[in-house]
Design goal:
Radius of gyration: 27 Å
Helix content: 25-40%
Oligomer: single chain
Structural class: alpha/beta
Bound molecules: beta-D-glucopyranose
Strand content: 15-25%
Number of strands: 28
Largest sheet: 6 strands, mixed
Distance between the termini: 68 Å
Length: about 775
């Protein structure tokens, strides 16, 4: 054993010495040093040990997914034998050190484990759900949020997160929309890039950064009927123009790993899909990292009716480019045999292992396998002020003001800071768990600051509280809590009583954190349970209501939109939720968020998104009573709130849209500018959005697409000129020639504060 370790060190040293003579200072140099080290190590590994590197086990048995039957496998023994390359869901320095010690000190080659964890929106200090963060349109803040999440997780022993999820989705029935950046590929790509940079930083070997993982490759956000894990049928144009761009953006950001997906795509399950994993990802995009399967997704190839048994599933998965097996036991049980039978080429195993070992080297795990295992650092960083401050900042920026109309010539928001009697109503107003959202397996339950606690910090108002009604269903990660009686109205009386005497009412209603997320598809997107009834009853006695909506996806809120004067979308904002919400309600932070997903009028409109196709019978209708036209007969075609929409306590005006030319060649550029002024009574931020329409295409084109945005801060009365440059990168699309190119012709553009921006100009692209 010792002899072998010495041999590895010698081989590795030899590799690095040879290279150091060449270009040790350059990046290329360090890459090739790592390449040599990996090759040297690979050359002394047995086939079984190589397969071990491709094997990932769960470290606790009750955290994610349906528990697999592991009785036939002694995971501990496999760790000792060097047959495990990675563990997931082991958390805390003590535990990580313990498993790492087994791998490093007991196995023949002592190869360290890479430790994976779902740091989706924070680790222990929880940040807003990703959909909320996306609503900030603030790339710096989003990057910072990922950076602090990485820092906190790394301090707790973790060196690999299964994030960012970059699945574009246009279906709010799908519970996992909370985990992505919404409906748009342009915004989604920018956010995907920022999040990878945030997690991985400039130096992956630093003890404050961790490897990121783009998931779920691909099209998992397009399940039929919004039902999680369901089949997906999309053509190449949608795949390339809408679904893949954020994944490509993560490769551009040098993401180290990818995760494949549970769904099938046009008949081929993503995990066994070589077109996705080999042709597009590893070949066309030249991705050098490794692909991990989703939880049990290799063995699920059998359930799809695609693999005959788990051995066949393993064969399909490795041949299709899945490098690491998360909890399917297909590789560890069958790959060796498959190689011996000639069904799997050993070169594919070498390629997968090379990818995995490379990242372990880049993380610095071979230099010091315990580098993430400092108890002192864990104590200093986890839950520290620095992390909480960043999370609070992100939370404020994620809030979207949906409505703020005057009652008796007075707006309810921002709240006055003194002399007010405020009635706070709703179970979620005083719930310290729900705001943690769905993915918070690193956090302690019941650790969010509640809205009530946040509001109570403003001492010069008198606050009363009544729960009113409970939230239906939800409450645990694995199971719905069916014990909660969602028809119980016994709390209404008290709520109505405090509402009667209030100057203003803050009602906090919506979904519990566990009502959206994985496996939580819904066909009814109304505010759950009797909460809406409660709202209606309170409204009867006092109309001065501010509705604070907390949810993990767009909800259908027609009644509220029609009647309630002020509505604030706060999503699930994490640990600092109550503080962030109070600061926004009181105007200490002027809301600046914009919706990253369209809000439908009803579920029947779904999928609904701003960048739809015109059809042969487009809106507006030539005659409103026309029958044979593209529309609904029972509801408007337009959404309740469009993509990009969000108000501020101040107002903005857009003027002087200018283009430096109105005719450019295919590879040309246009400079666009617009003057944006703060015309209201508060300083504030605005997200200036640029949309472009390619009028005629070799394939039909969306009515408009987001192609630029900038978030600016304007003092009262201030005007700023915002500049955009339109170039081929923004004008190209995946055309009828099956490639990305710009097509000549007419283009329209719009600039404004949401996707219905009226300020318009046109230009031409000529051959
Ligand atoms: C999810 C992944 C997650 C994995 C590991 C799966 O159920 O789809 O997104 O990373 O579990 O927890």
């Amino acid at each position: 054993m010792k002899k072998i370790s010495l041999l590895i060190s010698f081989l590795i040293l030899l590799g690095s010495c040879q290279n150091s003579k060449k270009q040790i200072d350059t990046n290329e140099g360090s890459n090739s040093i790592i390449e040599h080290k990996v090759d040297s190590l690979l050359s002394i590994m047995t086939l079984r040990e190589k397969i071990g590197q491709m094997n990932q086990y769960n470290g606790s048995w009750d955290v994610t997914g349906p528990p697999n039957d592991s009785t036939s496998i002694n995971k501990l023994k496999h760790l000792e034998q060097g047959l495990v390359g990675s563990m997931l869901n082991v958390k805390g320095v003590k535990n990580v050190r313990a498993v790492q010690k087994i791998a490093v000190e007991k196995s023949r080659l002592g190869i360290p484990l890479i430790i994976g964890f779902d740091v989706i929106h924070g680790y222990k200090t929880i940040s807003p759900i990703p959909l909320a963060e996306a609503a900030s349109w603030d790339l710096q803040a989003i990057q910072k949020s990922a950076e602090v999440a990485a820092k906190e997780a790394a301090a707790s022993g973790i060196n690999w997160t299964f994030a960012p999820m970059v699945d574009i989705s246009r279906d709010a029935r799908w519970g996992r929309v909370m985990e992505g950046a919404g409906e748009d590929p342009f915004l989604g790509s920018k956010i995907a890039f920022a999040r990878v940079k945030g997690f991985q930083g400039e130096d992956l070997s630093s003890v404050t950064t961790i490897a990121a993982c783009a998931k779920h490759f691909a099209a998992y956000g397009y399940p039929e009927a919004g039902k999680d894990y369901n089949t997906v049928s999309v053509g190449l144009p949608t795949l390339h123009n809408t679904i893949l761009p954020p994944f490509k953006a993560t490769v551009d950001a040098d993401v180290k790993t990818f995760m494949n997906a549970f769904n099938d795509l046009n008949g081929v399950p993503a995990t066994g899909n070589s077109f996705l994993q080999r042709t597009i990802l590893k070949n066309d995009w030249n991705f050098k990292g490794f692909v991990v399967s989703d939880w049990g997704s290799i063995m699920e190839l059998q359930n799809h009716g695609y693999a005959k048994n788990n051995k066949h599933a393993g064969e399909l998965a490795i041949n299709a480019g899945s490098d690491m097996d998360m909890e399917s036991y297909a590789y560890i049980n069958h790959l060796e045999e498959l190689v011996k039978e000639g069904k799997v080429d050993e070169a594919l195993i070498d390629d997968a292992v090379r990818r995995i070992l490379t990242i372990k080297y880049e993380l610095g795990l071979f230099d010091n396998p315990y580098k993430y295992c400092s108890l002192e650092r864990e104590q200093q960083i986890v839950g520290s002020k620095e992390i909480n401050d960043a999370v609070l900042d992100m939370a404020k920026k994620s809030i979207v003001l949906l409505k703020n109309e005057s009652i008796n010539n007075q707006k309810l928001l921002p709240l006055k800071k003194e002399g007010q009697k405020i009635a706070v109503i709703g179970a979620l107003a005083n719930d310290n768990d729900s705001m943690l959202g769905n993915w918070r397996i690193g956090a302690d339950n019941n650790t969010a600051i509640t809205v009530l606690e946040g509001l109570n910090q403003y001492k010069n108002n008198k606050i009363t509280y009544a729960k009113g009604a409970d939230v239906a269903l939800g409450k645990t990660f694995f199971y719905y809590d069916t014990k909660i009686n969602n028809t119980d109205k016994s709390g209404f009386k008290e709520a109505i009583k405090i509402a009667k005497n209030a100057d203003v009412i803050v009602m906090v209603l919506g979904e519990h954190g566990f009502q959206s997320g994985e496996g939580r598809s819904r066909t009814n997107l109304d505010i759950p349970g009797v909460q809406l009834d409660l709202l209606k009853e309170v409204y009867k006695v006092n109309k001065k209501i501010i509705l604070v909506l907390t949810n993990g996806r767009p909800l259908t809120i027609n009644w509220s939109d029609k009647h309630i004067p002020a509505i604030v979308e706060v999503w699930q904002l994490g640990t600092q939720a109550g503080n962030a919400i109070a600061q926004v309600l009181y105007g200490d932070y002027n809301p600046s968020g914009k919706l990253p997903m369209t809000f439908p009028r009803n579920v029947g409109q779904i999928p609904i998104y701003y960048s739809y196709k015109k059809t042969g019978r487009p809106t507006p209708l030539p005659d409103p009573n026309m029958v044979f036209w593209s529309k609904y007969t029972d509801v408007k075609s337009s959404p309740l709130y469009p993509f990009g929409y969000g108000l501020s306590y101040t107002s903005f005006s857009y003027k002087n849209l200018k283009l430096n030319t109105s005719n450019i060649p295919i590879n040309g550029k246009i400079k666009v500018s617009v003057d944006v002024s703060n015309t209201g009574e508060f300083d504030g931020e605005e997200v200036v959005q640029l949309y472009i329409q390619d009028v005629i295409g070799s394939l039909t084109r969306p009515i408009k697409e987001l192609k630029g945005f900038e978030k600016i801060y304007l003092k009262i009365g201030e005007t700023k000129t915002v500049h955009f440059t339109i170039n081929a990168e923004l004008l190209q699309f995946y055309t009828a020639n099956n490639k990305w190119e710009v097509e000549s012709g007419d283009f329209n553009l719009w600039i404004g504060g949401n996707s219905n921006a009226p300020l318009m100009a046109s230009f031409k692209v000529t051959e």
